[in-house]
Amino acid sequence: MAWFLRDREARRATLERCEDDPGRLAGTRECVNALEARSRAFFGVPDLPTTGLGRY
What backbone torsions phi and psi does residue 52 show, to the nearest 5 degrees? Predict the structure, then answer.
């Protein structure tokens, strides 16, 4: 997800693909990470380190 925070164009392109085929792609790791990065970028939330405890 940190990569999507840094690379705005990759985030945009990925989200476009995800939105074009939500039934197949919406739950993929790539789409979830791009969506989370978009939210964090919009709200100005910094990239937080992972805890190693799995997904939150």
Answer: 80, 10
